[in-house]
UniProtKB/TrEMBL annotation:
Domain of life: Bacteria
Keyword Amino-acid biosynthesis: no
Record organism: Flavobacterium ammoniigenes
Entry-linked InterPro entries: 2Fe-2S_ferredoxin-like_sf, 2Fe-2S_ferredoxin-type, Adrenodoxin-like, Beta-grasp_dom_sf
Keywords: 2Fe-2S, Iron, Iron-sulfur, Metal-binding
Segments forming domain 2Fe-2S ferredoxin-type: 1-105
PROSITE patterns hit by this protein: 2FE2S_FER_2
Lineage, top ranks: Bacteria, Pseudomonadati, Bacteroidota, Flavobacteriia, Flavobacteriales
Name of this chain's protein: Ferredoxin
Amino acid sequence: MDVLIKIKDREGVVHELQAPTDMAMNIMELCKAYELPVEGTCGGMAMCASCQCYVLNDVPLPEKGDDEEAMLSEAFYVKSNSRLGCQIPITEELEGLELELAPEN
């Protein structure tokens, strides 16, 4: 099953992406699959913050882990709604999620 996720890029364009829930992907990998400008330099290990995004609506997300908290405490452009895309697995609960890519570091 696919879920619809909306991601606003750094130019303000909103992309409506179909995200498969059966491929063990995360938001960073989804962005890369649709060729959105997300580096993912560390390969999803919560060590670079190049996939930082802002959560724009109230969709249940997994809690931030210690590694994600630590990386966000050192990253630029962090807001109260910042998350690392690599730490958000794509599940059916994400239906309707709206995100905005953070500025590049």
